Amino acid sequence: MTNRAYHIHVCLVRNEQPALENALQDALTPLYNLTWDLIGNPENANAFSRRQIDASDAVLFVLGEDYGTPSPTGISYLHLNYLYARNKPSPVVALLRSAATLNTVSRQRLDLANQVQKEQYERTVLYHDAAQAVDECLRLVTALVEHHASTHASTKANIVTFAADATLTSTAATPAPAAPPLSRTPFSKRDRPNAAPNPAPLSQSAPTLHLVLDDTVLVNYSAHAYQHGNLHDITATHLLSWGEILDMIALLPVPFSTDMLQRAFNDLLKAPALAVVEETMPDAHAVSRCQINSLDLQWIKQQLIHGGWIIPYKDERSTRELWQLNRNMTLLHDY
User: Fold this and answer.
1) Which CATH class is domain 7-145?
2) For 238-287, what is each residue's pLDDT tens digit?
3) Does the predicted model carry a pTM greater than 0.85?
4) How far apart are CA 180 and CA 198, in angstroms?
5) Structural element, H or E, at residue 236
6) What topology does CATH give the domain 216-334?
């Protein structure tokens, strides 16, 4: 579908993969309005990229082997562009070079790739060569453009229908029905501190994801280590199985909040953190402030929701987001 009015901005490390850049240019330019990250002063290029991201209908994020030029914060400008783009309404399509084709992989590049994969899901392509990357990119971008066109048409139709309905309503001058009286919940049921909770019906939608107990997930975390009276910051990763995560959630009270889930993960990571510290810092005697990476926590939580392992717990007396373990998972855990 040709749509030259559809603006796509491409974020990447320029000249790192000339064959891929040329192939994307050749395939996309005849179809869409394409802009690219600049070559030159990183700060000026970053400002240009943000303006283009703001103006674009979609962002194409390409990650090769190079993590990119570091900013004063230590995070690369490429990474900063991604963080900026993911918080905008425009969708992101990601092309990530397969780790099997890389010569060396830096920790920062690996973390960025993991983050993009977790956040973009179906709009991520792991490619081995330029031809494969371009084919998959065209497929995803075409789907985005078609969705954009149908959404735009639907919005226009709704506006026209709404305007017509409004005209008919004003012409008929139908009197508005009297507003129903405000409901007054008795104090004894609404505010009494010892009243038993009355949860609303729980959502029982069918799971959209199948989680296997023995499958593992890699989580990033940070901690403080103490050695010779000095405090050291450490970052590490740990593999957790979904079975371990189920065991952990089964010990949480009902209902539990996201903060409680985070604290449970932090407690679970204390022992692995101490083992890592003892290997790298033999004189270290303690670890504290274990913190699971917030992005990893959100990703795991989404998997638990889509897998039907945890379901919302609605309490009329609380405005917080609360959760409980699905009854089916409770039975599986007890078994």
Assistant:
1) alpha beta
2) 888 999 999 999 999 999 999 999 999 999 999 888 888 877 777 777 78
3) no
4) 24
5) strand 230-241
6) Arc Repressor Mutant, subunit A (1.10.10)
